[in-house]
Amino acid sequence: MSRPGPRQGEGALDGARLTLWAPDGLAEVRPGDDLAALVGDLLASDADRSGDRLAEGDVVVVTSKIVSKAEGRVVRAADREQAITDETVRVVAVRERPGGLPPLRIVENRLGLVMAAAGVDASNTPEGTVLLLPEDPDTSARALRAAWRARFGIDRLGVVVTDTAGRPWREGLTDIAVGAAGLAVVDDLRGGTDAHGRPLSVTVAAVADEIAAASELVRGKASGRAVAVARGVGRYVLAGHGPQGDGAGARSLVRGGPDDLFREGSAEAYARGLADGHDLPR
Amino acid sequence: MSRPGPRQGEGALDGARLTLWAPDGLAEVRPGDDLAALVGDLLASDADRSGDRLAEGDVVVVTSKIVSKAEGRVVRAADREQAITDETVRVVAVRERPGGLPPLRIVENRLGLVMAAAGVDASNTPEGTVLLLPEDPDTSARALRAAWRARFGIDRLGVVVTDTAGRPWREGLTDIAVGAAGLAVVDDLRGGTDAHGRPLSVTVAAVADEIAAASELVRGKASGRAVAVARGVGRYVLAGHGPQGDGAGARSLVRGGPDDLFREGSAEAYARGLADGHDLPR
């Protein structure tokens, strides 16, 4: 795999300064649209306006919403609960809600992501519709990266596809990376040392998620801006085309299986234990 | 409470552009140090070097590590497991680990935070010691804010105290806000509408956590930089002194009680159910 890292002229500041901006003016994305072209046009006109051209080491961040829209991942709103069911691989936890609302379902979806409503989205889409997550956001990220590398003549370019998710034990939502290309999605410092020379044995920073979270601060939910650029994380950005340049993708950030201590919600696990315990011979 | 928001001259770009930088050169922080003065000196000398003076609407981000060091929250390393036990209010989940390592404990600590090892930290501290989290990071944030408002003559100033934490279902760690002052810690859009005029009924962005995550990208674990400044989120920054200007703090980001669907790890909840089920009369 190509080594990520800053290049001459970029190194002194890379890592110590980060700038993100969110260009405005992307037209409504519709099924079948060439998303790479639309966003490329946005970036180009933004560059004309501001003088800030896409550069080596930049990361383009797009919401999964516009990827889904372009890919036609739209279903009728009346089918929202059915859409969630269809996207559900495994139910993790369910909470009843007042006021006639359907229960909140936290589930594992096709992408291995554990999210409320399987990631099905009813905001920022035309009335009467909901959006599913992209079929394969890593693949989408790779296609976007290839198109923009060619269009802008950039070798080292990262792409992150974001979605918004809640977290256990914390109020509020943050954006995370559900797709990525051209980026080391984690900063794996295992085997490295800290400033005191002690081993950083468990420090694996989820760089792609941090970039996603930072991008939400410039995009904002109410404004509907769907694209951001992050400049200053070039040390994580990969060069070259194909698998080596694309990297492992955001799928590598999904944790499951025996390492998942929260595979079931507490109430669900308790209930299952209760049933099994009742069946145990005395 | 003072209304957060951009002021004249700042509004056009606020929200669409975000810059973070991490000044270098903070001396090792020791128990009893005046942290506000040390970090203030760092910011002042960085401003002399770069011309970038702290300005209205800026947010200063500091790691909980340096707050803990200044507050003397240091214990001997041999007592790490005991320190974790002492900081534990409630055990959430435990995972055995190979190689003679003590089990990984995910627990709720005094601050209501659910974290591995109760937030006890063995990296970036002198050999033979571990660090506890600050006694009350919101209080620490408020004190820092008051000192810097006075020193730099700034009315609208935010402060975030960060710590690094893992997440269920995702690899890698991100930084979150464990203390905050002068900041709306969530961007509560409930009651607002999206670009289509549809109600944003569940969208509450955890702004303070997003700022914390973004700051990690410029601080970096291996470099040991403990301070960052975020410019461009002024719309979330509060004005004035005292409780109105300080805001609710990061404690308001802690979710617990009946809304916590993952109060126990799956294995723990299952085992408890199994025991209770075994005791049920037939």
Give a brief rundown of this model.
2 copies of one chain form a homodimer. Chain A has 282 residues and is an alpha+beta fold.
Structure notes:
Chain A has seven helices and twelve strands. By secondary structure, the first copy, chain A, is of the alpha+beta class. In chain A, β8 and β9 (170-181) form a beta hairpin. Chains A and B meet through β1, β9, β11, α5 and α7 of A and β1, β9, β11, α5 and α7 of B. β1 (17-21) of chain A pairs antiparallel with β1 (17-21) of chain B.
Annotation, overall tally of beta strands of chain A: 12
Helical stretch tally of chain A: 7
The run of helices and strands of chain A is: EHEHEHEEEEHEEEEHEHH
Instruction: Give the terminus-to-terminus CA distance of chain A.
Output: 58 Å
Strand content of chain A: 15-25%
The biggest chain-chain interface is: A-B, 90 and 90 residues
What's the multimeric state?
homodimer
Radius of gyration of chain A over alpha carbons? Answer: 21 Å
User: Which shape of chain A, going by the Cα principal axes?
Assistant: globular
Could you tell me the CATH topology label of the largest domain in chain A. 60s Ribosomal Protein L30, Chain: A
The secondary structure category of chain A is: alpha+beta
Q: Identify the strand order in the major beta sheet of chain A.
A: 1-12-2-8-9
CATH class type of the largest domain in chain A = Alpha Beta
Q: Could you say how many structural domains of chain A there are in total?
A: 2
Main pleated sheet of chain A? 5 strands, mixed
